Amino acid sequence: MKRRIVCTVAAALLLSGCLLEGAGPLRDPKPFGAQWAQEGVTKEKWLADWVQCGGAANGNYDYEIQKGQPHKEFFEGLNAYTDQLGVCMRNLGYKYLNECDARCR
């Protein structure tokens, strides 16, 4: 009985995140667009280019699901949007980094 209580409390703490508190953020705090890099470009210039290409002013994507929109339609639109954004960024001389490093914004 005591073992069951200990396991239940441990599971509750783990699921609530209390035991993971010191592990740091689970998601990289950098915006999605941060993986588009170009040598010598300031963060301000990168953000201006990102917005010009259709990204949001916070560096993330500017595409949201519409109320009642089917998931299939949303993902088709999202894929088209990200493709267009990527073409635009490449045309401005940016390269996509598969993993963020020091060049990420």
Automatic annotation (TrEMBL):
Signal peptide residue numbers: 1-23
Keywords carried by this UniProt record: Signal
Protein's UniProt keywords contain Signal: yes
Protein name: Lipoprotein
Lineage: Bacteria, Pseudomonadati, Pseudomonadota, Betaproteobacteria, Burkholderiales
